[in-house]
Amino acid sequence: MHFLDNYRSIIRDAINKHNLTNPPHQLYDPINYILTLGGKQLRPIILLMSCELFDGNIEKAIKPALGIEYFHNFSLMHDDIMDKATLRRAQETVHVKYNENTAILSGDALMVISFQMLEDLEPHLFKKCFCLFSQTALEVCEGQQYDMNFEKQQIVSFEEYINMITGKTAVLCACAFKMGALIAEAEPDDLKNMYEFGRSLGIAFQLMDDYLDVFGNQKTVGKKHAGDIVENKKTILYVLAQQKADEVQKHKLNYWYTITGENENKVNEVLAVFNELNVGDSCLELVKAYSDQAKNYLNKIRVDTNKKHTFYELVDYLLVRES
Amino acid sequence: MHFLDNYRSIIRDAINKHNLTNPPHQLYDPINYILTLGGKQLRPIILLMSCELFDGNIEKAIKPALGIEYFHNFSLMHDDIMDKATLRRAQETVHVKYNENTAILSGDALMVISFQMLEDLEPHLFKKCFCLFSQTALEVCEGQQYDMNFEKQQIVSFEEYINMITGKTAVLCACAFKMGALIAEAEPDDLKNMYEFGRSLGIAFQLMDDYLDVFGNQKTVGKKHAGDIVENKKTILYVLAQQKADEVQKHKLNYWYTITGENENKVNEVLAVFNELNVGDSCLELVKAYSDQAKNYLNKIRVDTNKKHTFYELVDYLLVRES
Predict the structure, then answer these.
(1) Closest to B141 (Cβ–Cβ): which among A27, A81, A123?
(2) Which of the four pLDDT bands, split at 50, 70 and 90, describes residue A68?
(3) CB–CB of B283/B170 below 8 Å?
(4) Is the pLDDT of residue B220 over 60?
(5) Does A114 touch chain B (CB under 8 A)?
(6) What residue in B sits closest to A140 (Cα-Cα)?
(7) Are A116 and B138 within 8 A, CB to CB?
(8) Distance (Å, rounded) from C-alpha A48 to C-alpha A59?
(9) Strand extents, DSSP E, chain A
């Protein structure tokens, strides 16, 4: 998607411009490391897109967009410790490359800096954006907590799962869309609809991520194939499988999700159950449903339909992406 | 000090009132746990004192004061993981009572909540207080990084040490004094002098802490006797000892500070060197010097001298406290 590349180059330039060079380098090097690993940088891009949609000044939105990207990377640093993840964007995670203490402390600093990225905004706007951001940040922590709770739950309901990914993924996406609109001084109804659009899109995005982990192209995903199965992560595929499984299949799932560590047999056995129950297709149907919900909110936003074109494209892009 | 108790009861009531009861309890229980462990709660108290000094509305200052206390407790949660500390205020640390992941994530949430405590302030004041707070937060992270760096440095200069404790302890103290004055809408010169007063006092406070760890009354300190020596912490006593030591004493210090774990012999040997070099008294002289510096800043503040009485008392209290 060409238009995404334009925004992405603005974000990358801004990240490079805000490279942290002050001492102590032991604190700031790991931050520069994770920020330059790349990634899709969708969250800051959508903040810029949203600001432009409402004819806002994109220059004013760049640092807040970086703030959103910084916060996302802070959460990755800490989540990777908690999840004992060794790879992030096909490179070593911060706690592996450096150590856990560094990942904790540099993450803390990065969270603070993410909030500081709003400080150029005038007081009224600053306060509005900060309150949105801080509430979002807390919900992200709650989402991560629910995700950790799932490790000890054999059954995770569909509602619990959607609630978890809403916190862990969708609200930051919703926050980015709404903040862009706030900076452009959009009307309250449009702010609300942008937020809900972002939340639905964020849920669809995470469901697609769960799908790609198992059914995606390993090279483009850049993560270990079926890493979620290896790590006994209760993703939407697991939740759907538990709902649809007969006693034999439930027994299989429950057995394999107690086995830890790499095990080729395990991935194949779980995958066989997933395929028997067709949970891949069910997952794609959910992605479609949440994408449609997102489009419904987008329809309500009171700007020219042709200005919204790239937003519809963005939603559809989720349905065809391979990583 | 009776007047401290009055402020402390305001803070304790506010902490209890803001008890976090929303789900997920796995995220919020550890926060309630650390906040109700007590501690001196000097940081929020000085924010209230400072607000009153400039005839500000103390009601308006209570939530920001909690914010400072919350931030301090967030930093304790994470520092205790990094330092592998098992006791805090004579109770189990969060990562021991719960686990490391909980201490990381609940700490993150607590940092966010600490900033949210400013959100009742009107936009202009909110922005001023937030910018002060966020800059302080970053300096606290830098201080902790320097402290971790010291683990790998045999020689720590006096300047490096003061710089480290300025970040790790003094700036949050300075921030609390200045924020109280900001909420009371004090004049720029007074704001600056309150900040510098707090910084000098914070340095004196930390130096006294270093002294008490080794020479304090174990029961009232509530921590392991000479825990800093056991953990090879390069405190001011170590820095001064390295400066004054002859070759034999240096050799002893360097030897013992490579030995890890509990070792009664080690504490006695290091203590013997400290006593030979009289670093306890040198440390108390530094406490006095920084306290005097604090008083000089206090002298410059343009409010009635009799209103500043409790502030002078607070400084002196540092020189006689036993914990």
Answers:
(1) A27
(2) very high
(3) no
(4) no
(5) no
(6) B109
(7) yes
(8) 9
(9) 87-88, 91-92
Q: Tokens 């009171």, residue?
A: A302
Q: Is the Cβ pair B134, A127 closer than 8 Å?
A: no
Distances (CA, A) of B37 to B2, B73, B88, B230: 21, 10, 8, 24
Q: Is B123 close to A126, i.e. CB distance below 8 A?
A: yes
* Residue found under tokens 């301090």: B72
Distances (CA, A) of B217 to B88, B222, B223, B322: 16, 9, 10, 6
B8, two tokens:
């402390």
Q: Which residue of A has its CA nearest to B115?
A: A134
Residue A155's SS3 state is: coil
Interval A168-183: pLDDT, tens: 999 999 999 999 999 9
CA B211, CA B202: separation in Å to the nearest integer?
A: 14
Answer yes or no: is pLDDT of B250 > 60: yes
Distance from CA of A58 to the nearest CA of B (A): 22
Q: Which two tokens stand for residue B179?
A: 């924020």
| Chain B: closest CA distance from residue A119 (Å) | 7
In this prediction the ipTM stands at 0.94
Any CB–CB contact under 8 A between B312 and chain A?
A: no
Burial B173-211 (b: 16+ CB within 10 A, else e): bbbbbbbbbbbbebeeebbbbbbbbbbbbbbbbbbbbbb
Q: How far is CA A36 from CA A40, A204, B41, B202, in A?
A: 11, 26, 40, 37
Annotated domain spans of chain A: 2-320
Other beta carbons within 10 Å of A305: 10
CATH architecture of B2-320: Orthogonal Bundle (1.10)
User: Any chain B CB within 8 A of the CB of A153?
Assistant: no
Higher pLDDT, A196 or B319: A196
